[in-house]
Structures are given as structure tokens and as C-alpha cells.
Amino acid sequence: MEAVPRTKPRYSATFDPHAIAEIQRAAATGIYDIRGGGTKRKLPHFDDLLFLGASVSRYPLEGYRERCGTDVVLGTRFASKPIRLKIPVTIAGMSFGSLSGQAKEALGRGATLAGTSTTTGDGGMTEEERGHSDTLVYQYLPSRYGMNLRDLRRADAIEIVVGQGAKPGGGGMLLGQKISPRVAAMRNLPEGIDQRSACRHPDWTGPDDLEIKILELRELTGWEKPIYVKVGASRPYYDTALAVKAGADVVVLDGMQGGTAATQEVFIEHVGIPILAAIRPAVQALQDLGFHRKIQLIVSGGIRTGADVAKALALGADAVSIGTAALIALGDNSPEFEAEYEKLGTAAGAYDDWHEGRDPAGITTQDPALAARLDPVLGGRRLANYLAVLTLEAQAIARACGKSHLHNLEPEDLVALTIEAAAMAQVPLAGTNWIPGKTVGL
Amino acid sequence: MRVAAAPVAVNEPVVFDLAAAGLRALNAALAGLTATTNQTVWRVKNPRGEHAIAVGVTAPVCIFVDGPVGYYCAGMNDGADITIMGNAGPGVAENMMSGFVRVTGDASQAAGASAHGGLLVIEGNASARCGISMKGVDIVVKGFVGHMSAFMAQSGNLVVLGDAGEALGDSLYEARIFVRGRVASLGADCEERPMTDEAAAILAGLLRRADARAEVGDFKVYGSARKLYNFHVDHAGHY
User: Fold this and answer.
1) Which of B94, B116, B133 faces A148 most closely, judged by CB atoms?
2) Residue of B nearest to A197 (CA)
3) Where does the pLDDT of residue A190 fall: very low under 50, low under 70, confident under 90, or very high at 90 and above?
4) In this structure, which of A224, A407, B86, B179 has its CB flanked by the most CB atoms within 10 Å?
């Protein structure tokens, strides 16, 4: 007699395997999950946009032959010494402490080879990164760890960090296992304790105070250096407008795909908005105030390819910034270390426990033996190669759209594959002239 | 053979009229001073509550500001001796590296915020978050301090001759807090500690340097209980 057919096991879309595992883990440990990196959920992103390319009404430029400029000047509003970069791709702020000294040096070397800037992070400026970075942006953070007048004056620009895309409204925590004697000394704290980074600045609150803080920083540095204001993408129109009002030279807008050294998973995945949804409101604020292309906009969060760079610039940004991608270029999550990732309970391509300090690639660690695995010279070369590819890819697209400079890309060059992306990027759904919320479609 | 030091010339103060010459001119002039300058005494007239006065001074000069100041006066001071003849706005002597700052009146919020070194003396009261995130500075307040003073204070000493507001020393690291008056409440992980000989000596030295008339024995000292130094879920309710 044949067995009665049984319903095959059916997994819930709501209580999917990940959700169930997280409930089980929470019940066992009583603590939320902390990890590094940005959001891992699928979001409307640059992949949902396409360039139209040249056609009868647009003629292209010859690849590799006709010039397509890539340079960008940042800080033209007030600074007497604005930053001049060869490419519109900068390296985002990442701290010494979160990263090894070798990794910071490699970032500086790579950025310098490519003709762009790199950025300090929470914890101050190291000699390695100052020495190997032709153009170094000094972050001014709520914790003020390592903040000092000498470093402020030897920086090329100052970035006031209000928030970051992975955790708008959140501070940070560098867990004790990464607090080496050197990290502890730079932060004026004991070794081995968890070091909290405040979520708001100790001596100013709100845009009116920020204006005065910017005045102070300019007075401290003789009005020479561009002052950036970095915000996590949440209310991009108003944050950009208020940064303009406060006197910023540059606005840095970081989407929720942007990475963090260590934050609660629930924060990373549920606070903030994707960079695709943030760029146009920020550009609109600059346009409404008459400052588009006068105050520069740098966007970040999930930049991977030259296509992403080109799309961000076409939507109105002046430059982009990369963090996670730069670490991957150095060797983060390399298959070379697959066996060691397995020992850590993860896999190459999924490793995100950057806060634990056990990075097999020697990047997000303070363990001397692990850190020694990263050759800063080779790492810098790899980063420079990657930056060159990003630039070449963006140029290839721009030439196909008939643009002699990356900054000539414009929203009109783009269409969207989904209604969501069309609404967020404010470009037409492909094959229509419909921009949700803007126009009545065909 | 010992060579006698050259006689030191007594210089006339440099009188700077801020209302007439402007902030940029003042700070540029002060920034241009070297360690061997003979313009060692400055008097800033008509400050009129302006912000960012005398910030980032690295020369060992004396600066007298003749009146109340706005935000961030003496910010990032690194070696100068600055006296504010009046009240100070938020963030006076913020992130001071070294030197001496005296406020003859009251100070607004976040006095001495994140300062790494030097001595800040406030003759009157200080508002909320005095000494927030302090990183080695010594602060003496002869009056009261507001709520959340010494919040996340990392190192250095805060001396309060009057009372302290709510949540004193919340999330304290290794800074010491001395209070002579009443403490409205202690913040998370802040506790009263024994007045050791070392602590008493530090307090006595600071009272002397601040020209404060008070007895060491009248103070209590507070420090970190160090229970929150490494996050543990069982302490979650303390945050």
C-alpha cells in the first residue's frame, strides 16, 4: 500500500531561517547581535538604474581617445585652500583602532597613488596615515578621541561627523579586545575596556551651534581648510540645507549601505535610508539654495563599481566615497583565508565580525600577528588599482553618454528599472516618461 | 662660569579692540606669535559676547579679555594664560591641550569639554555638562555645576566647591570628581570613593593653584565603579 502523501516542510516567509536563528540566538545569549559593515538586506540601489547612452540625439565620445575629465575640487565656498583631487572617489573615514596601522597606511598609500584623499576616523590621526596620505581629511567626531590642535592644523580638510549611514543617531563601541596599548593611549583610556563613542557632540547641539562650531574650526585653522559636514542619510533635504546654513564647504551624505566598525544588527538594518533615496533630496536642497556645484556633495554607501560612481554623479553628487569596497580591495573577505573564516563560523564574502579583532586578513584587527599579514605597500597598490578601475569604468559610461567630464553626467542620462527606484532617483521608469510623484506617465 | 640671564623687558600690553579690528585679525595675530615673542601680554577690549575669541593659541602669553564672551573662547588653548573678565558662553576652553583659563564670572554649558590638559578655573558657577568627555584637564569651579557634569569624563580632575546637579559623573571613566557641596544624584557607574592621600594631595594642589579658599577635608571624592567598563547584558538596566 502506498504511503499517504504528506505536505512537504514549508518555511515561513515571516519566520524565515534567519529570523528563527536570531530568536534562538537571542534567547540563548540575552544580547543583541553586533557586527561590522552596512545593511545586508536587498534595497533599491544603483543596480536599479541604467544609462541610456548615446543615440540619434546624443553623440558619444571616442573611448580611450577623447578626453573625459575626472578631477574634482572640494571646498570652494570658504576655504582658501580647497582640495584638488584627480578622481571623484575618496576614501571614507575609518578609525585606527577599528583598523590596523598597516591598513590605515595602505589606505593612505592607495589614495595617494590614485590622486585622491583618505580620511581619519574615531581615534585620531596616526603618523602612518599622515605620512602616506598626500591629502588627508581629519574627522571631528563626538568622542574627540585623539583630537588635538597640531593634527587639526596639519590636516588638509576637516570633516565634522554628525552621523553615518549605518547608524544615524547612534554612537559607537570599540570592544575591549581591540584596545591595544597604542589605541588606548591615543584615546586617553585604559587598555582592554569597551570604548564608547558618543552619539552627539559634547559642546554643540543643533544647526545654530554647528554654525558657531564651524566658525571656531575656521578660526583655529586660519580659514584655509575645507570644512565638511557628514550626515547619515535620514532627512537628506533638511540636513543638507542646515549644513549649508551652518557654513559647510562640503556635505557628505552616507546611505545605510555604508559600513560601520561595530553596531547592533538591528540598528544597521532598520535605521536610515538607502543612498539611492537620499541623493536627489540633498541635491534639491543645494539647488533650492543656489549652491549646487558651489558646495560640493560627496555621497557614499554601497559604491562598488564605476557604474555606481557614474550614477551617483549623474544624480548630482560631486564625488563619492568608499569604505567597505576599499577594505575588500585591501584583502578583506578574501577567499585566500577561507579556512580561517570557517573556523570563525563564517565564510569569505560574509565575514562581518570586524569588532572582534580576529580578522584573518589583518585589516580590522589590532593583533600584531594578524595585522602583519597585510603588506601596506601591496595593499596600497591593490587599492590604487581598484580606484583606477572605478574611474575607467565611470569614464567609459560617461563617454558613451557623450560627456567630456564625469560631472557632465545628469539625471537625463538615466532611467530606472523599478517604480521604487524611479521614485527615489527621480528619473523615468525605463520605456516611459513617468517619474512617480513627479509626472503623469504615458 | 655661570652667565647671568639677560634682564627681561617688561612689555606694555598689546591692546586689541575686537569691535574695531574683528575676530579674524585677533586670532591671526595670536596664531602668529612664537614661543619667544615679546608681546607677552594682550588685552582684548570690547569682546561683546563674540564667539571663538583667542582660540588655538600656542604661545605662552597672557591674554585678558575685558568682558563676556560667547561660545568656545580659548578653545583648544595650548599654552596660553587666558583670563575672561566676565561670563563665558558654551564650551569655554573646549579641548584645551595645556595652559590656564580663568573665567571670573559664570560659564555656560560644556565648560572644558573634551579638554586634554591645562587648568580651567571658573570663579562663578558652571552650567550643565561641565567637564564632559574631559581627557586630562583639571577644572575648578568655585560655585555650582549643572546636571550631567563630567559625563563620560576620561581623565583629569573636576573640583566643585558648591553643589553638583543631577547625574554627576555619568558613565565616568578614570577622571576624579571632588565636591564640597551637595550632590543631587550620581550618574551611572559613578560612586563615592575613599579620599586617599594621593587624591587629597591632588585636591590640595588644585585648590592652591586656583586660589580657592577651601579645606580638603570638606570634600568628597567620586570616581568610576568600573562596572560598565565592559558591556555585560546583566548591566543593561544601569544604562
Assistant:
1) B116
2) B152
3) confident
4) B179
Here the CATH number for the domain that contains residue B70 is: 2.160.20.60
Q: Give me the torsion for CA of A233, A210, B134, B215, rounded to 10°.
A: -140
Cβ distance A220 to B58 less than 8 Å, yes or no, reads no
- What does the domain layout of chain A look like in residue ranges? 34-408, 410-442
Q: Which positions ≥6 away from A320 have C-beta within 8 Å?
A: A88, A89, A90, A298, A299, A300, A303, A308, A309, A312, A313
Close Cβ partners of A78 (under 8 Å, ≥ 6 residues apart): A218, A223, A226, A227, A247, A249
Residue B6 falls inside a structural domain: no
Q: Rounded to whole angstroms, how far apart are CA atoms A360 and A298? A: 31
B152: left (phi over 0), alpha (psi -120 to 50) or beta: left
- Chain A CB contacts of B115 below 8 Å: none
Determine, for residues B71 and A188 on separate chains, whether the beta-carbon distance falls below 8 Å: no
Q: How do residues A283-340 score in pLDDT, each as one tens digit?
A: 999 999 999 999 999 999 999 999 999 999 999 999 999 999 999 999 999 999 999 9
What distance in Å separates residue A225's CA from the closest CA in chain B?
A: 15
The chain A residues in contact with chain B (CB within 8 A) are 29-31, 143-144, 147-149, 152-153, 173, 175-176, 187-190, 192-194, 196, 198, 202-204, 209, 212-213, 215-216, 219-223
- Residue-level pLDDT at A1: 65
Domain-located, residue B66: yes
pLDDT on residue B3: 36
Q: Are B113 and A203 an interchain contact pair (Cβ–Cβ within 8 Å)?
A: yes
Chain A partners of B135 at a C-beta cutoff of 8 Å? 144, 188
What does the pLDDT look like over B183-217, one tens digit per residue? 999 999 999 999 999 999 999 999 999 999 999 99
Q: B233, A29: Cβ pair inside 8 Å?
A: yes
pLDDT digits (tens, 9 = 90+) for A7-45: 999 999 999 999 999 999 999 988 888 899 999 999 999
Is A203 within 8 Å of B90 when comparing Cβ atoms? yes
CB–CB of B51 and A216 under 8 A?
yes
Q: pLDDT (tens digit, 9 = 90+) per residue, B123-164?
A: 999 999 999 999 999 999 999 999 999 999 999 999 999 999
Q: Which of B75, B76, B133 sits opposite A202 (nearest CB)?
A: B133
C-alpha cell at A80: 582658501
| Residue B7 in domain | no
Q: In the numeric block, which cell numbers belong to residue B97?
A: 591641550
* CATH numeric code, A34-408: 3.20.20.70
| Closest chain A residue to B24, measured at CA | A219
HSE, side-chain direction, 13 A CA sphere, residue B206: 29
Q: Which residues of B touch A147 (CB under 8 A)?
A: 95, 114
Residues in A touching B27 (Cβ below 8 Å): 219-220
The cell for A241 is: 540645507
Q: What is the pLDDT of residue A123?
A: 84
Entry pTM: 0.95
Least confident span in A176-180, A437-441, B94-98, B197-201: A437-441
* 3-class state of residue B183 by DSSP: strand
Domains: count for chain B: 1
Domain-located, residue B47: yes
Residue B84: give the domain boundaries: 14-234
Distance from CA of B88 to the nearest CA of A (A): 13
**Nearest-angstrom CA–CA distance, B91 and B171:** 20
Please judge whether B91 and A203 are an interchain contact, meaning their C-beta atoms are less than 8 angstroms apart.
Answer: yes
Burial status of residue A65 (CB atoms within 10 A of its CB: 0-12, 13-18, 19 or more): exposed
